[in-house]
Amino acid sequence: MEKAKILLIEDEESLASFIQPELELEGYEVVWAKDGKEGLEFFEKEKPTLILLDWMLPVYDGITVLRRIRKVSDIPIIMLTARNQASDISNALDQGLDDYMTKPFEIEELFARIRVILRRLEREKRRVVSSTLEFSVLKIDLVSHKFWCKGEEIYLTPKEYALLCELMNDPEKVKSRDELLDIVWGYDFIGQTNTVDVYIRALRNKLGKYRNLIKTVRGYGYCLRKVDDNE
């Protein structure tokens, strides 16, 4: 497999000078940008496979960089942040963030998150599909990775897309949080236990008045179920 190129956008030199060689020892090519403006320039020039993006950056902050990249690309982006407020994280997920890590973090956990994303990209490259998934007013085109709710196209981040695909693959079947973590994030995912809940909340927000199609089964997990009050 071709060596993955990672764009690290981080202004804290001590952290970047630690992360970069560690990633290189893992076999990745790493490009380091020291502010948001340079990060956007490197994104255009270097064509990375994945981006590690700090939230608090000079010139353009991480959210601004995220928004600008999402206008032109679905490249996986992991946010590195000292912020841990649910509202901050939800906002970043709504802007198209794939994953996040709260500082300080263990480097092995970062490696695990990266591996999960790269495995997903590799699977998507190999997979040839020509069908759609449909449930109630929801429809996913598995070729174009587009999603519609009641005929309206809605943008999903890669993780939201994978999570909704898994639910739509087996409508009405309850999937546990652990099961969804294993399938969508990977068996070696190391992260907060509420990760699935955060992404479900983001999906529900995007479904608007059809949010109740995603049913919570208390103490277990989630499934899709038709309801009478969605029309």
From TrEMBL:
InterPro entries: CheY-like_superfamily, OmpR/PhoB-type_DNA-bd, Sig_transdc_resp-reg_C-effctor, Sig_transdc_resp-reg_receiver, WalR-like, WH-like_DNA-bd_sf. Transmembrane segments: none annotated. Residues 130-226 form the OmpR/PhoB-type domain. It comes from the Bacteria. It comes from Lactobacillus johnsonii. CDD domains: REC_OmpR, trans_reg_C. The keyword Transcription applies. Residues 5-118 form the Response regulatory domain. This is Response regulator. Keywords: DNA-binding, Phosphoprotein, Transcription, Transcription regulation, Two-component regulatory system. Gene3D superfamilies: 3.40.50.2300, 6.10.250.690, Winged helix-like DNA-binding domain superfamily/Winged helix DNA-binding domain (1.10.10.10). Residues 130-226 bind DNA. It holds the Pfam family Trans_reg_C. The modification 4-aspartylphosphate is found at D54. GO terms for biological process: regulation of DNA-templated transcription. GO terms for molecular function: phosphorelay response regulator activity; transcription cis-regulatory region binding. One of its GO terms (cellular component) is cytosol. The lineage of its organism: Bacteria, Bacillati, Bacillota, Bacilli, Lactobacillales.
